[in-house]
Amino acid sequence: MIDTIGLVPIEEYCFFVLQPLATGLLFEVLRSGAIARSGVRAASPLGVTVGAGLTIAGIAALVSDFSEYLGLILVWAGPVVIIQWLYDGRLLAQTTASWAIPLAASTCYLWIADAIAIRIGIWSISDAHTSGLHLGSLPIEEMTFFLLTNAMVLFGLVLLEAAGIRVTSRNERQP
Question: Among 29, 33, 76, 146, which is most exposed with the fewest C-beta within 10 angstroms?
């Protein structure tokens, strides 16, 4: 650990910047074409229900002391997922092919990297704040965190591109 800002290691802040950048770059490399809205924006009842379920499960985890870490992740991510799927769930559902593979690839990569780091002792996850459920050496809380953060990044990129908001290089800009 280099140092902390508050109680959080600087490396953690770096990760919060690098994860969305890496996931976003993978999205750009793997997708097959531009994303355009076909019709009017529409919410997705299924997506909103999933987001609400995440939030409710998070509250239940916090109230029951099942896993503070998992509860906080779900309570934090659930409302963001709800907003994204309320904004244009139809588009997110129609463009699954553009975000599903980057989601799976980036999430699996982070699961493997995190499991290795935990196994060799680079860091550890507090038993006092987790459920104790693991897949190999990886706590389900870490798995959930990486899956949801990557999903929120990718959903956001799809929605931004469909809205015509896109980061371009100097060479792509028109004079």
Answer: 33
